Amino acid sequence: MFVSSLLLGGLFYHHPLVAVPLIALVALLYWLVKHNYKFWEIDGVPYPKPSLLTGNLGPSLALKKHISELASDWYNAYPDKPFVGYFKIFTPAIMVKDPVLVKNILSRDFDCFANNDFLLDVRQDPLLSHDPFLVTGERWKRSRSLLTPSFTGAKIKQLFPVMESVADAFVTFIGRHVAQELEAKEIAARFTTQNVVACTFSIDGDCFGEQESEFRRMGRRVFETSPMATVKTMMAVFLPTVAKYIPVPFLLKDVDEWIRSLVANLIIQRSASEKTVQEDLLQSFLKNREKSNATQTEITAHALTIFLEGFETSSVVLGFTLYRLAKSPEVQQNLYNEVKKRIDANGGQLDFDALQQLEYLDWVMLETLRMHPPAATMHKVCTKKYIMRKGFRDEQGHDMSIYVREGTPILIPVLAIHMDPKYYPEPHQFDPERFSPARKVTHEGATFLPFGEGPRMCLGMRFAQAQVKLAMVKLILNYRVTVGPNDKPFAIDSRSFVYQARDGLRIVFERR
């Protein structure tokens, strides 16, 4: 401040005609920002104190805290409030805490919050602009309609033999690394990548070899960005109106060219072949091509969507499930007992129907998703003016319902809701039986959101659950898992938009 004062003083002394307007402009901007930060105070909405240049997002912008941790701080600071205001840089935004309001936003009043708060330029990212998570309006409806047939229960059941073959190869891979310390998410990503590639393209992804495969390398490349793309990604989440003016794509050029070449070559091969083609997910797109009038760009884009969303988030869930079982030997033994009993009763065979009947396995996965949801926050935007539900009152008895303006960002703190003891007693305890019929408590509204809710609920939910559960069954039948010698409490990776451990999760497999 002292140096700034000297500089302004020198400027005023030597160039008064320049200094006066400049100082006036700075003063005006300062006043506008400070006045803007009174937005929620004027509306009578509680809010954490913002910083001058970053609003309430400073710790996340500085990569000191994951956005889910920041949201949890606000959530816990206002325990009895249904919603809290905050500032997304300079933009007034709302974090919705009350489960009924959350359910209304995601389901009942979906038409007022139809879009996710993420701007994508179709010209700069022609493939990502068909991802139903990222797009809006009619483009979202079309993308969802084209992808939906690929994720029905019948389709997943049809793919089950392929998935089981991959899971068996995964067991063999782990067998080569028994008694070695492994990173849970990395080995999980090998399995999910191999499985998604097999189910989508009928290709051996070579993910269980000693050398990094092309598909694992490209899977990593998708989440790597150029320096400018990194800036744009941050802006897309925290300041979308600025992001659209940064003329760089999110998807790296070599990844774009790779997936286009892969799909184009497969289409040519299948068109020229007289052999019966495997009914994989790509073939489903091709069979429906005439009916849907899908372009090759759309087919390529949806293949990319399945590849990305099929391996990354599922690997997070599988990795955390293995880690939680490693730290909970009793839960692990209970799971083994259930799986062994079911397989024995099924003649030693595992099929799709038997997998669905493993109740304790469901509880284990649901509890992992509660404690470690890959999408630990949801980001929506108000698309129509909206009165947020009446009936909430502050300490003075005043009505807390508010008018939400079109364009207002909405944050749903998934992790904070999942860790609220009002809904989940002893939330830091890994307790799968909280999801058992005997103990499960149903709360009004939405209190369990690992896959979202409503029309934008995760399309690949069934596929993700099937591949994670199948991998768990195969592993638990053959191995015990324990924490590695270098295990330590993990921190959430503030550099990642997906909830994951910053320095990995260390585990060791032992043969049964």
TrEMBL record:
Q: Which Pfam families match?
A: p450 (PF00067)
Q: Which InterPro entries match?
A: Cyt_P450, Cyt_P450_CS, Cyt_P450_E_grp-I, Cyt_P450_sf, Insect_CytP450_Detox
Keywords from the named record: Endoplasmic reticulum, Heme, Iron, Membrane, Metal-binding, Microsome, Monooxygenase, Oxidoreductase, Transmembrane, Transmembrane helix
Annotated membrane-spanning segments are: 12-33
Task: Name its cellular compartments.
Answer: Endoplasmic reticulum membrane; Microsome membrane
| SUPFAM superfamilies in the cross-refs | Cytochrome P450
The record's listing under CDD domains reads:
CYP6-like
Residues that coordinate or bind heme: 458
Q: Which GO terms describe its cellular component?
A: endoplasmic reticulum membrane
The GO terms describing molecular function are: heme binding; iron ion binding; monooxygenase activity; oxidoreductase activity, acting on paired donors, with incorporation or reduction of molecular oxygen
Q: What is the recorded membrane topology of this protein?
A: Peripheral membrane protein
| Cofactor(s) demanded | heme
Q: Which family does it belong to?
A: Belongs to the cytochrome P450 family.
Q: What is this protein called?
A: Cytochrome P450
